[in-house]
Automatic annotation (TrEMBL), chains A, B:
GO molecular function per UniProt: thiamine-phosphate kinase activity
Membrane-crossing residue ranges in chain numbering: none
SUPFAM superfamilies the record matches: PurM C-terminal domain-like, PurM N-terminal domain-like
Chain sites annotated for binding Mg(2+) 1: T57, D58, D135
EC numbers, comma separated: 2.7.4.16
Annotated signal sequence range: none
Domain PurM-like N-terminal stretches: 40-152
Protein name per its UniProtKB record: Thiamine-monophosphate kinase
């Protein structure tokens, strides 16, 4: 396990609860004008003036959402922030603050939490959010992370899942499926490692996929790009559970159907190679993979010229009347109803 | 275990993740003008206009923070909300929204989560807060609850831990120590039950203590009472870890010392009786018990007449210069330095 690699091990009980909180948050400073008071009181105090406030929260559980056998703690901290920041971006809002709650069993030394916090602080810096509060306690088993992200937006910018109309174009940023295949590669390497711990894997052919899994990024940049294009999306969601599942969310919330064109789905060349190596269907991975943290949104057809040829965006289909259903149009030009396979955490655990 | 009493048991996997979230949140409505959008999108959207926003978060872990052997799930849900609402009240702000994240192992049927949510919804109603988001997932072991509370306040009303001056009076609402002794009674009954499951305990002599433990209340009422008295506290905190620990927090944040008078500490007559029965020192319990969720605050001496004789408040001491230290003045008129024993979750767990 990662945390056993530490040379120095300071037990959590040596610091105590208040000591640990003080230690982990000792160098956390706030920088945004909207943060009036950060860590250190019963609550943080924020000031958004006349802007609207967007709030989202996620719970990450060891053994369910992450495996410390191949997820370095620093990356875990980074990713936990990204996952939440992504939700704020998916409202077309700007992330501003996070709170970070952590529960750990005594098997983690203080140095392990330092690594985790390094990742959290690094992500906070990269995304320009202030860490304004949280809770630190013990767990009976493993590590639990709960992050709440807060953001701000002008009322007119906020984009909901509902709001698309039946002729809107369906657009996704970046590419999809890579994070899922990165996980498959890591799972395979973990098994190889268990059989032969001295094996030195060559992960170069998988670097993009692994980075997408271990160090995903939220598309905080998209809001400014859309603003510069004078483009207001009609609906928006982030791709956390898989493209298929997210399209269905947009359709259900907007009371519409959709046609998604298989040939249009953007995938990285590395994904194609590795899917062949693993003998897995690329479209299945691209549709159901999840954890890409790209943004999926709709725009009016009349706005098409604003994004035409823009490398940030791919038009992957269009919305339809609800009665037409939610379909994948394959390369062979057949229609297959989309299913929300997504990622079902509730079938796991003891 | 409580959750085994259910006649009907629907497994979580039968509903699936999205199904479960939909089921648990199906009748949640929002009522505050500051809630523009609640559950059902990537984030909630809130509007506080020119008010400041207060945010606090807590993580509650089965086996660390609660024991389902004597904590009914409905009470647990209620208490989890109260704990967070109390933090908002401790900033002299008005609680407005909460997010609720839950992780459970498969040993819990859907009906158990329904009970938990009933308690959460009831508390939300009692405290007038909207449930605007959250996360529902599986855990590897036991139940995990993470609640974030949001509140609003005019800038001039917000009261921090820092802000007291050396001549301020130290005041506590209600009484302290009862929740801790309620826990001792429940622990004893649990042991009796394990020896003899047919034993019918008479808990009447302990009803106040047990209620303080199982169904504590946050002092949302205090802000309005202070407002009506035209009284602005100079510093404030809620009593979650124990009176002693909280006094030390106020002192450290304000750069002061304090004198606490043993004879002034408000305790319920039932606490006195039960401490005698358990042969435990009342003052020790009152100082270190925790989980009372009363408010501890300081006011200027000149404001004393505003609270004199008010049954909501007890003057328990006064602040001093930092060099005088933080002391308990006993009934025998000796000074003993206060220690933050509080409650140290990090010495527990595997």
């Amino acid at each position: 396990m990662i945390e056993d690699k530490n040379q120095q091990r300071t037990s959590l009980s040596a610091l105590g609860e208040f000591g640990l909180i003080g230690h982990l948050t000792r160098d956390i400073e706030t920088s945004l004008p909207s943060t009036l008071k950060g860590i250190g009181d019963d609550g943080a105090v924020l000031d958004f003036k006349d802007k609207k406030v967007v709030v989202s929260t996620d719970l990450l559980i060891e053994g369910v959402h992450f495996d410390l056998a191949y997820m370095p703690l620093k990356h875990l901290g980074y990713k936990a922030v990204v996952v939440n920041v992504s939700d704020i971006c998916a409202m077309n809002a700007t992330p501003t603050q996070i709170t970070v709650s952590i529960a750990v069993s005594n098997r983690f030394p203080v140095e392990a939490l330092d690594e985790l916090y390094d990742g959290i602080k690094h992500a906070a810096k990269v995304y320009g959010v202030d860490i304004v509060g949280g809770d630190t306690t013990s767990s009976q088993k493993g590590m639990i992370l709960s992050i709440t992200a807060i953001g701000e937006a002008e009322a007119e910018d906020i984009t909901y899942r509902a709001g698309a109309t039946s002729t809107d174009l369906l657009i996704v940023t970046g590419d999809v499926g890579a994070a899922y295949m990165g996980l498959q590669v890591l799972e395979r390497e973990k098994q190889v490692f268990q059989v032969n711990p001295n094996n030195q894997p060559d992960l170069d052919p998988y670097n993009y996929l692994i980075e997408r899994q271990l160090k995903p990024e939220a598309r905080k940049d998209i809001k400014a790009i859309l603003k510069a294009l004078e483009l207001q999306p009609t609906s928006m969601i982030d791709v956390s559970d898989g493209l298929s599942s997210e399209i269905i969310h947009l359709c259900k919330n907007s009371g519409l159907g959709a046609s998604l064109y298989e040939e249009k789905i953007p995938v990285d060349p590395q994904l194609i190679n590795v899917c062949e190596e693993f003998n897995i269907d690329i479209t299945t991975v691209a549709l159901n993979g999840g954890e890409d943290y790209e943004l999926l949104f709709t725009i009016k057809q009349a706005d098409y010229d604003k994004i035409k040829g823009n490398p940030n965006f791919t038009v992957i289909g269009h919305m339809t009347e609800e009665s037409a259903g939610i379909n994948l149009v394959t390369r062979a030009n057949t229609q297959i109803p989309l299913k929300a396979r997504g990622w079902n955490a509730l079938s796991e655990g003891e």
